[in-house]
Design brief:
single chain, TIM Barrel, 8-stranded parallel sheet
């Protein structure tokens, strides 16, 4: 039964959690340690699998279950693998030629991008085996046959929506909750019925419209990193929040020292939507590469193939202490993030939100 202190207990009841906070899955920035810490504190920790194999994902799930007896969420991408286009990849490599020469890096062969795999048969079998409390999808939903198999495991299904139309689509397909991802959110946009970045909606305009449009719980995501933002999301009808950037400075996050340093001095206006790191729009901090080639480059290869040619440049730059070629994923509330253990942060965020909600009611 949901804690009566929260004005909307739908998400608490759905996921059987104590506080309505989901730790956003952040592929490449976290693993099982962060997920376990948030779940142990009463929220819902998440394990991102887009950059894992199904075998490694199983190992990470085992680590979570060793660390906590609470439920957790497993997240997957649902993008369509790009069609072969070696010409586009080669042109992208040629565009970076001056950077390779400057840093003394060797360009990779085309199609050597870092793997970001969509949900497939192997992942579905893994879900059927490990049976998590919840599964979430980004970039839409998997094919009907795989989606039905996930539902039959008993896992609650969540999915990101960046527009009301996407939320209505998801609700019609039978998801248990919709994650309303506002344009302030860090990382990749979850767009799947549109590719128009310019029309993306802010969190606090998007949330109430989705709440009005669907009957399932709505989770606010984007630009929320403290109790004020959580309380505001509830005031607009959300049943919970999903926070990513707020957790990036916790010791459990796996980001580089360069990324952590950048977050400490980041301002909201320092983050932009860019496609130059992967080929798909994502929000991160401006650095040299974003300023000189983006933020949005029409000739970036399709997601995720833009990433491969950057890997040698990133490695060389980071070895020299520079984040000039690193994707520094960050939402617009990055300056509100705090350095403290993830479990303590989860508890503090809930306390702050409840105090703010009591003030509003009083």
């Amino acid at each position: 039964m949901a804690d009566a202190n929260w004005p909307n207990g739908k998400l608490l009841d759905l996921l059987e959690i104590d506080v309505p906070i989901i730790q956003a899955p952040m592929a490449g920035a976290q693993g099982s340690e962060l997920a376990a810490a948030v779940s142990t504190a009463g929220g819902m920790g998440s394990l991102p699998c887009a950059m894992l194999t199904s075998e490694i994902a199983r190992e990470e799930v085992a680590r979570i279950r060793t660390a906590t007896n609470r439920g957790f969420l497993i997240n997957f991408f649902c993008h369509k693998p790009p069609a072969d286009n070696p010409g586009a990849e080669q042109r992208w490599i040629e565009k970076l030629a001056a950077y390779y020469a400057e840093l003394g890096a060797e360009p990779p062969a085309p199609a050597s991008a870092a793997a970001r795999a969509p949900f497939d048969e192997a992942f579905c079998e893994m879900i059927e085996e490990v049976r998590p409390k919840a599964v979430s999808f980004h970039f839409g939903l998997p094919p009907d046959d795989l989606f039905d198999r996930v539902r039959k495991t008993g896992a609650k299904v969540l999915c990101s929506a960046t527009t009301v139309r996407e939320a209505e689509f998801l609700a019609a397909r039978g998801v248990d909750a919709v994650i309303a991802q506002g344009s302030e959110a860090g990382g990749h946009r979850g767009m799947f019925l549109t590719d128009d970045v310019a029309s993306q909606i802010g969190t606090f305009a998007l949330v109430p419209q989705i709440v009005d449009a669907v009957d399932v719980p709505v989770i606010a995501a984007g630009g929320i990193a403290d109790g004020r933002g959580i309380a505001a999301a509830f005031a607009l009808g959300a049943s919970g929040v999903q926070l990513g950037t707020a957790y990036l400075r916790t010791p459990e996050a796996k980001i580089s020292a360069i990324h952590r340093k950048a977050l400490r001095s980041a301002h909201a206006e320092d983050s932009v939507l860019t496609n130059v790191f992967t080929g798909r729009p994502a929000r991160g901090l401006k650095n040299r590469f974003v300023r000189e080639l983006g933020p949005l480059a029409a000739d970036a290869p399709a997601f995720p193939l833009a990433a491969g040619p950057l890997m040698p440049l990133r490695a060389k730059a980071e070895a020299a202490g520079s984040g000039d070629f690193s994707p520094l994923w960050t939402g617009q509330a990055g300056s509100l993030s705090r350095e403290m253990p993830a479990g303590k942060l989860t508890t503090l965020l809930a306390e702050e939100a409840l105090e703010r909600l009591r003030t509003l009611v009083g």
